[in-house]
Please model this.
Amino acid sequence: LADSAEYIDPNAAGVPESEDDNDSVSDESMEGEDDEAQFMPLVNPSLRPPRRRASICAEKLDPSGVDKEVIQIPKTDEEIAKIRSILVTCVLFEHLDEAQLKKVNDAMFSVTKDEGEIIIKEGDDGDNFYLIDSGNVDVFIDNGDVGPAKLVNSYCDGESFGELAIMYNAPRAATCTARDGPVKLWALDRVTFKIILMKTAILKRNENKSFLREVHILSELTEHEILTIA
Model:
């Protein structure tokens, strides 16, 4: 029987392939996947886009705080003139009128720092805006574990810094230290600055409102409409 039996081709007869054949096909498909994986681009973690910086929002001020009395610091005529000459060069104050500039000038208080003493520290909450009456100030940014703090800027007599603190309740972006002996500064806190602006704005609005009420053609406008125009 063995001699007379015909040889049957399993492929021609439709006989399922052996397990060895299936294994070879599986191996080939896996090799194909491995080849594709080799050509897939690898993402370098250091090249990933940095995290977006947290947004900075302007600090809200309770309108009831306008009633707070702004303390006036006595100054000599020379000090008043020096402070004003610096204020008018600052972008933050260039839109203020003479009355507002005077109130800001009156509210600024004196600060003296010895050589090497920290004026503002990176990461701390912003509180004051500073004008340099005399002396020099160095600005450093922390390098973390890489090395010592890096000197990125310097300010001298007649310049100012810390304006973000007066506009926003944001952490300090750098450290400022006094250099070359005592440094005399004039400082203004952000709450006082906002109160001054709000008080003067309300005063102007009330003056405009009183004037508009005397205009006959506007006599039929509501209170809201008059204030909107004012």
